[in-house]
Description:
By secondary structure, the protein is of the alpha/beta class. It is built from 7 helices and 5 strands; from the N terminus they run H-H-E-H-E-H-H-E-E-H-E-H. Helix 6 links the parallel strand 4 and strand 5 (about 185-195).
Amino acid sequence: MPLIPEEPQIHESAQGPRATPATGRTASTPRPVPGPRSAATPRPGRPGPGPARPAPPAPRPHPVPGPPQAARTENRSAPQFQLIPAAAGGALDAADEAVDLLLDSGRAPGDILVLTTGDPHPWATHELSFGEAAYWAQHDAGDDVFFAGAVSLDRVASRPVVIVSVNGTVDAAAAHALSEARDRAGALLIVCGDPQEVNAVLGAAV
């Protein structure tokens, strides 16, 4: 009897290579990493999308850097001056409100120095009750708001913000304290007092 050749068996495994092109799609998936990282940085003046745009700032550096740097150096040479009108009896409260506003705006406590030309601030009176050594140790630490009398200006170091509470008579000693306070302020000088009396001392100089 003649032998009947067996029919070739078609294996369904031949369809396997059709699935291989799908593997090439995995390499094209992007990674959205910079977005969430920028949102996690809690910096008010520096938004997140900044680092994700490296290309646009490249053409801008040529016209921009020259003028603003010169303006910044001029602003740093002299502190800004702000006058808060207040009577002698309310100058201390006005100074406390100024401190609260500065802290709420993000200013570090160690950047602020408060001087009084009349009676000392209640905080200074309380801290001095524990001795002058402990009181001035807090000044030297420089990590919190410090309250001092204008008569102690020779021991007070400069700070970015100096607030002067004119809570007494503007005599020669108070006028001298106002002038010295301007030299102690690195960025901002705030004076709480009678506008006419303060301007008579600092109006022409600030």
